[in-house]
Design a protein that fits this description.
The chain is of the alpha+beta class. It is built from three helices and six strands, in the order E-H-E-H-H-E-E-E-E. The protein folds into two domains: about 80 residues, Glutaredoxin, CATH 3.40.30; about 50 residues, Glutaredoxin, CATH 3.40.30. Helices cover about 25% and strands about 15% of the residues. It is globular.
Length: about 140
């Protein structure tokens, strides 16, 4: 299975997501989207496959979101995508693509449904434990 992660190495959520993919035994294709932004066509395709509104993929924190006035309702989806193409930092991350689907993995454990091999336990950078082991059945 080929997994692709649109990754920002300066983002803890993105780093945790990448580590979970690797923990599952997969070595993903890593696209550092700030260095190599997706094409407009690819970005539109990712958003369509995620099945979310364009606004859901916009990142506010640490971006020019406020100064560009992107919180206003006047912008069309095409215009918002134009802003993301001009300022890739506005693309929220990490976006993970696998045969099981495409998802913005915030929080990082959302990646678990996209992995071919389950992870029973994972410790995030901040010490939070992610466990997929079921407590059902008296285990």
């Amino acid at each position: 299975m080929t997994i692709t992660i649109y990754h920002n190495p300066n983002c803890g959520t993105s780093r945790n997501t990448l580590a979970m993919i690797r923990e599952s035994g997969e070595e993903p294709q890593v696209v550092e989207y700030l260095k190599t932004p997706p094409s407009r066509e690819t970005l539109v395709d990712l958003i369509e496959k995620m099945g979310v509104p364009v606004r859901d993929v916009l990142r506010e924190k640490g971006t020019p979101f406020a100064e560009l006035g992107l919180g206003e309702d006047k912008w069309s989806d095409d215009q918002l995508i134009d802003f993301m193409m001009e300022h890739p930092i506005l693309i929220n991350r990490p976006i993970v693509v696998s045969e099981k689907g495409v998802r913005l993995c915030r929080p990082s454990e959302l990646v678990l449904d996209l992995l071919p091999n389950a992870i029973e336990r994972f410790v995030k950078e901040d010490g939070e434990v992610v466990s997929t082991a079921s407590d059902a059945g008296g285990q």
